[in-house]
Amino acid sequence: MLIGIVGKPSTGKSTFFTAATSVVVERSPRPFTTIKPNHAIGYVEVECVDKEFDVKCNPKSGYCVNSRRFVPVDLLDVAGLVPGAHEGKGLGNKFLDDLRQADVLIHIVDASGSTNENGEKVQVGSYDPANDVRFLEEELDYWIKGILDDNWQKLLKESKRKKNEELLHEQFTGLGISRTAIAKTLTELDLKEKPIEQWNEKEKMEFARRMRRIGKPLLIVANKCDIPGAYANYERLVKQFPDHIIIPCSSEAEIALKEAAKNGFIRYIPGDSDFEIIKELTPEQKKAMEFLAGYMKKAGGTGVQKALNTAVFKFLNYIAVFPVPSDKLSDGKGNVLPDCFLMKPSSTAIDLARAVHSSMADKFIRAIDIRTKRTLGADYVLKHRDVIEIVFGR
Predict the structure, then answer these.
(1) Residue 177: what pLDDT?
(2) Considering the domain boundaries, does residue 242 fall inside one?
(3) What is the pLDDT of residue 36?
(4) 197: buried, middle or exposed (CB in 10 Å: 19+, 13-18, 0-12)?
(5) What pTM was estimated for this model as a whole?
(6) How far are the Cα atoms of 343, 354, 366, 390, 392 from residue 362, in angstroms, in the given order?
(7) Which of 192, 287, 296, 361 has a C-alpha 20 to 30 A away from that of 232?
C-alpha cells in the first residue's frame, strides 16, 4: 500500500511527511523545494489484541504503546502541483507520474490562505483555499483524461477483440487502478457495453473523473489550522465541499509534540487529543505548550494520525489481521504477536497466507481462529483484528 501526499507548493506537504514519518526532509516556503519525491514509512493505529490474551505485545515491525498498535505504511511526498500541471507546467507531468502507484492520495491544503495558486507567499487570509481543492482534482482528472487521449487510437484498434473492462484495465494498470474500479466506473456511467468508438468527449472526461475518484480516492487535510483564521477557513471548506472528508491539521504541532515527548518533557502518543507535561518547562516552553493544548482541544488533536488512519481504514477499507505462529502467540525469537498485516477488504485466509509468505499459500492446509479455536478454510473472509494461525505443509 502506498499513500501519496499531494498539493501545490508550500502548503506544508513535506512538513506533514516529516510529522507522519519522523524523517527530516528539506522544508522551505520557497516553491518547488521538493523536486524528487520523498519516500518513507509512516504508521496507522490499530487497537491491539494483546490485552485480550493478557500478553505484552512485542512486534517485529512498527510498535505498540498501551495496546495501541502502530503498523507501517509507505508514504510518498511528491513535488508541488500548480494549475496547468497536466500540461507540463511546473514540471507537472513528472510530478503526476510519481503518483502512479499510490493507492490513496492525501491532499494538503494551506487552510491559512497564506500561499497563492503557485505556492508563493501572500498575506495570511488573502487567498481562498477552496480554489486549491478544485484545482487539484481538476488536474488529476485531466491527467487521466490525457492518458486516455494519448492511447485512444490504440484502444480503438484493440476494441474489436476486447471488451471495455479488459481493454481499459490493461490501459490503466500502470496507474495502480484495479479492474474492480474500472468495472464500477463503467457500470455507473452506463458505458460497460457501449463501444468506445461511440464515446464522445464528455463521456471520456466523465470516465476519467469518475475512475479517479474510485481508483485514486482523495482525502483533504486542511493544514496550518493553528494559524489565526485558518480554523474558520477549515469550517468553511467543510460546508463548501460536503461530499469530501476534510481533516483539520497542524503538522508543525505534531512535530513539536513528538520532539517534546522524545526529550522527556511530555507524554504524548500520536493520535492523542491532548498531552501530559511531566518535566518543568521554561516560561517560553510553557506558553508554547499551552497554545498547542488549546489548539488540540478545539481540533481534537493535530490531525496527522487521524489523516493516515482515515486514508487506510475509511477510504481504502483495509482491515488489520494478526497472523501468529501458534496459540502461543510468539515466534522463535520471542516476539509476541510479531506481525500485523493490513489487508484489502474481502481478503481470505489464503490471501493472508500469501501475504506472510508464498510457500504458506502453496502448502496451505487450514487456518485456525485463535480466539475460538475454530478451523477455517482457505476461502474464509477475514475480519478486522482477526488473530489467525496458518497451518501449512512443511
Answers:
(1) 86
(2) no
(3) 74
(4) exposed
(5) 0.92
(6) 19, 8, 12, 12, 8
(7) 287
Contact between residue 269 and residue 221 where contact means Cβ atoms under 8 Å apart: no
pLDDT of the residue at 34 = 46
**pLDDT for res 100:** 81
Q: Cell 491532548 maps to which residue?
A: 274
Cβ–Cβ < 8 Å for 80, 15: no
| Calpha distance 380→4 (Å, rounded) | 31
Instruction: Please state at what angle helix 164-172 crosses helix 179-188, rounded to 10 degrees.
Output: 130
Does any domain span residue 351?
yes
Closest listed residue to residue 324, CA positions, set 64, 67, 50, 62: 50
Q: Which residues are CB-neighbours of 143 under 8 A, at least 6 positions away?
A: 85, 86, 96
Residue 358 buriedness (CB in 10 A; 0-12 / 13-18 / 19+): exposed
In order of 55, 149, 192, 328, the CA distances from 164 in angstroms are 52, 15, 6, 50
Residues of the chain with pLDDT under 70: 25-35, 83-95
Phi-psi map region of 211: left, alpha, beta (phi>0 left; psi -120 to 50 alpha): alpha
pLDDT at residue 35 in the model: 56
Domain range holding 374? Answer: 318-392
Report the amino acid identity of residue 347.
Answer: S
Half-sphere exposure of 374 (CA within 13 A, CB side): 9
- The pLDDT assigned to 86 comes to 60
CATH of the domain at 370: 3.10.20.30
Q: How many domains does the chain divide into? A: 1
Q: Is residue 358 part of a domain?
A: yes
The torsion defined by the Cα of 201, 204, 207 and 210, in degrees rounded to 10, comes to -50
What is the CB-side half-sphere exposure of residue 158 using CA atoms within 13 A?
15
Sign of CA dihedral 53, 54, 60, 61: positive
Taking the C-alpha atoms of residue 89 and residue 387, their distance in angstroms, rounded to an integer, is 49
pLDDT reported for residue 101: 83
